[in-house]
Known about the structure:
By secondary structure, this protein is mainly β. The chain has one domain: Ribonuclease Inhibitor (Leucine-rich repeat, LRR (right-handed beta-alpha superhelix)). It is built from 1 helix and 23 strands. It has one helix at 176-179; strands at residues 7-9, 21-23, 28-31, 45-47, 52-53, 69-71, 93-95, 102-103, 117-119, 124-128, 139-141, 146-149, 162-164, 169-172, 187-189, 194-195, 211-213, 220-221, 235-237, 242-246, 259-261, 267-269, 284-285. It has a 12-stranded parallel β-sheet with strand order 2-4-6-7-9-11-13-15-17-19-21-23, with no helix packed on it. A 5-stranded parallel β-sheet has the order 8-10-12-14-16, with no helix packed on it. The model is unreliable at 292-297 (pLDDT under 50).
Amino acid sequence: MSNNRLSGRLPILDGPSPLKRIEWEKNDMEDSIPLSYVQMLALTSLNIAGNKLSGSLPGGLQFLTNSEELTIYKNSLAGTIPAGLLFLTNLATLTLSNNQLSGSIPEEVLRLNALKEVDLSHNRLSGSLPSVLGANLERFAAFSNSLNGTFPWTTPSPLLEWVRLSGNRLTGTLPWTDIAKFPLLAVIEMLGNELTGGLEEAMGQLTTMKMIEWIASGLTGTIPASIGNMTKLRGLRLGGNQLSGTLPSELGDLKNHEALILNDNYDLNGTIPTALAELVKLGKSYMFYMMAGYGAV
Length: 297
């Protein structure tokens, strides 16, 4: 029943039901999630995203032990994320973004072994990030919240590809030596946080990296020459920080580069490496703006 203009309350289903999938995505359904939904023990997928649902997430979600997908983004749900989700041992996808959820992220939920994708973005979550990720987690997003504390993940997560944490209040330095051991990490977004410290030579070990986005994140120091080893990198967005020194000539080794944004780093100086002129895919470069001094390519 997805992608219609259905309105009113979600239908209440009485008694045990053999239903395995419920899809009411992108309608105009209102009010709260019926408690009868958490009594549907055969349910493997619940998709009620893109409606006008309010209230809180039902506490009985932990009874949906066969669930593989909970897709409830873009509603007006408030309250906290139920810790009882830790009992959903088959859960692979948890999408709760664009709601009004508050409180902390339950530590145990991200440890679920079947979990592959989590999106908690655009809520009102606070507290620190969970200290451990599940062994099979591939994508984690929690941008545009009020999360604080430091980047906690120092043990390599073997399948993690995406980390999107922009628009929070994270502090401290990034443990580059540990992050460099994540074998498949391709995207890390940290823009708009309150980080300290800078980029390190160890980041050059992230040869799977495709996107680095840390605009206005409080970074200091220089851009390391080892960045030239990240040959799959398509975007480097570091504008609005406090980077200094010169641009390494190794930037010219990034043949897949499409976007290089270094504006508003007032202490970057020197000349622009001539090798950048050979990056034929580079279509968006703002590095000439608000630098201390530069020469022509």
